[in-house]
Specification:
Nucleotidyltransferase, domain 5, 3 domains, five-stranded mixed beta sheet, 13 helices
Length: 343
């Protein structure tokens, strides 16, 4: 008989529950180390059919490490699992592990695709750069706010121009300069780190065939292309290109009950950072006026803007962009702006 294993993972300990033939045969705890967990599972379940755990900060490490140990690891959607686990009377790690083992036994779960370590490194690089950019914005706003209190208004500017204007305004303000200049130094240091991460992203985009392919689309830059490739990894991970829009949360939510049938706002599920990048790319495509950006996609988006408004049109173009980019990854063809390009 095969065994089904549920793991409730935390930073320190992992609760383990093993079921066989509709009954629990063992449960316990061990440290949250995949090698130790694999040995524990092998000791009590020599022939596990499924080893199920939820998505979380350790999910990528656990999935790849347990798979390398030869265990049939399955990572399931935490939101879906919690609706089932929340029905238990007592919320404990042991009961959660037991509930996950039951889900593995019944097959009533939603498995998720776990990204490779290479894709996660790219996503971490993009996230780190975005975090540092946010810090530079906060620091510059803090500097402006402090100086405004003393009647020193920094004109709208950024980069070196912002730095020179702050330094000019601080001339003859020695006491205030002792407060502001440390913030300016930190601002400069963070900007330097942002530049380093940006160079790494550009290098990754230049060396990737798929990223160069996606950058043939007007409005798609290095960061969006790299992020898209890291998120999708293999185009075969999706049954068709249209499903990618729903995966990114760019399709409307629907509520139907009896005579009620409503379409709401977009679901906003999935990768929020990539969804934001695609929206930015769509707005750039719709707002550009250069002749080299003319395409059937842009014409369609502008027609939608006339009927639905700019924001809704940009969301629709962002969803269409995801479909086009996925198709390009499957076929290996560059972006074709107009139908005449097929001839």
């Amino acid at each position: 008989m095969t065994q089904y294993v549920g793991l409730d993972v935390s930073l320190k300990d992992t609760a383990i529950a093993i079921r066989q033939g509709g009954k629990r045969i063992w449960r316990g705890k061990c440290c949250s180390d995949p090698a130790t967990i694999a040995r524990t599972i092998r000791k009590h379940a020599p022939d596990p059919e499924k080893v199920v755990f939820e998505t979380g900060p350790l999910a990528t490490w656990f999935f790849h490490s347990l798979s390398a140990e030869g265990l049939p690891a399955i990572c399931i959607e935490a939101r879906h699992a919690q609706k089932i686990l929340g029905e238990t009377l007592n919320k404990t790690d042991a009961n959660d592990a037991e509930g996950l083992a039951r889900l593995a036994e019944t097959g009533f779960y939603k498995a998720v695709r776990v990204k490779s370590f290479g894709a996660m490194r790219i996503r971490t690089l993009v996230a780190a750069r975005a975090q540092l950019l946010g810090i530079t914005t906060q620091l510059s706003n803090q500097i402006r706010g402090i100086m405004k209190t003393f009647g020193l208004i920094v004109p709208k500017s950024k980069g070196r121009v912002f730095l020179s204007r702050v330094q000019d305004l601080l001339q003859g303000q020695s006491q205030l300069a002792q407060i502001i200049l440390p913030l300016v130094e930190v601002w400069q240091a963070v900007r330097a780190r942002v530049s380093e991460l940006s160079r790494q992203l550009l290098a990754a985009a230049r060396h990737g065939r798929n990223t160069r392919l996606l950058m043939t689309i007007p409005g798609i830059g290095a960061i969006t292309a790299v992020s898209f490739v890291a998120a999708v990894e293999d185009p075969r991970n999706f049954r068709n290109s249209r499903s990618l829009g729903a995966w990114l949360g760019l399709t409307p939510r629907r509520y139907q009950s009896g005579a009620v049938d409503l379409d709401g706002h977009i679901s906003r599920r999935g990768d929020h950072r990539l969804r934001g990048l695609l929206y930015e790319a769509a707005t750039a495509l719709l707002a550009r006026t250069r002749a080299d950006t003319t395409s059937d996609l842009k014409v369609w988006g502008l027609q939608l803007r006339e009927r639905l408004g700019f924001k809704r049109a940009a969301i629709a173009v962002a969803r269409k962009l995801s479909v086009i980019m996925h198709t390009m990854l499957k076929t290996g063809q560059p972006f074709i702006p107009t139908r005449e390009g097929f001839a």
